Amino acid sequence: MSRKPKYFDRRFKLELLHPKYWITWVGIAVLVLFGLMPAWLRDPIAKQLARVVTKIAKKPISIARINLTTCFPDKSSEEIEQLINENIENFVMILLAQSELMVRSKANLRRRVKISGFEHVEKARAAGQPVVFIMPHVWGIEYAGLRLNLDLPMVSMAKAHRNGLFNWFNNRMRSSLGGNIYMREAGIRALLSELKNDNSFFYLPDEDLGPEKSIFAPFLGTVKATLPVVGRLAQAGNAQVMPVKIGYDQQARRFELTVMPAVDPDDMKGKDNEALALNKVVEQVILAYPEQYMWFLKVLKTRPEGEAPLY
């Protein structure tokens, strides 16, 4: 069994020029073009394209509608539809901008992402501790990761895409500041090893990983299955756990990134307490910018015994 690090290879390979990738290359070229555009020109185009996405993305919109009506039972159908429209608009706007993370300068990244609360990170670093940043699946997560990576060593973990070229491009962007991007199969041990090497990383606790080892805890207007592992991971790696929220301000044409105070380790003692604490953190981050969360994900796939599936 190989003991080599299971992270994505950032090197370009000639096989990526195979004709089967030519359409993907066209798509990447379009994304790079948009990434080079100024936001004042790109954002209005994104808003128009969002209307097209709204008409054709029937299945993702159906999932988003189920999630929103379940999580916000007090919202009217009109409010739900408004949130969906705003969500799609933000998705297209941020998607078209993302290639700037690889093709534009570090100075541009600092201008595009205004950070606050970094003193919490500095305090942890002064104590010799790395940080496990808690952030659910929000549209601006790539901006959050790379902006933080400007000021402290970080790694990440991602699921591989079937398209080899897009896989290379996406992870080349994520690792453009030098941080390794691990494959999912590398597991928790790889992340623990990175913590011990003084590298910080993001942990996304909102993904539904099935009933095995998950704990149900209150989440917005319902309950959600959550995997309580980050508390033990942070303890073993002598790390602090800090929630992070990020949202795109369309008026200022920049992202607002906030590092929140560290979660009290006592709040994560025991699996039930940790699941509750993690879900509360995810709620805080989502409610800061509810129109910018990835509502199309099946985050409520696992339901309590006896409850009918939502999707």
Architecture overview:
- The protein has about 300 residues and is an alpha/beta fold.
- The chain contains twelve helices and nine strands.
- The protein has a seven-stranded mixed sheet with strand order 1-9-8-2-5-3-4, sandwiched between helices.
- It is globular, with a radius of gyration of 19 Å.
- The protein starts with about 20 loop residues before the first helix and ends in a 23-residue tail after the last helix.
Overview in brief:
With 311 residues, this protein is of the alpha/beta class. The protein contains 12 helices and 9 strands.
Task: Tell me the series of helices and strands, N- to C-terminal.
Answer: HHHHHHEHEHEHEHEEEHEEH
Structural class: alpha/beta
Number of beta-strand segments: 9
| Residues in β-strands, percent | 5-15%
Distance between the termini: 39 Å
Which helices and strands appear, and what pairs or packs with what?
Elements: H1 22-36, H2 39-56, H3 58-71, H4 77-97, H5 100-103, H6 106-112, E1 113-116, H7 118-126, E2 131-134, H8 141-149, E3 154-158, H9 164-174, E4 181-183, H10 187-196, E5 200-203, E6 215-219, E7 222-226, H11 230-236, E8 240-249, E9 254-259, H12 271-288
Parallel strand pairs: 1-9, 2-5, 2-8, 3-4, 3-5
Antiparallel strand pairs: 6-7, 8-9
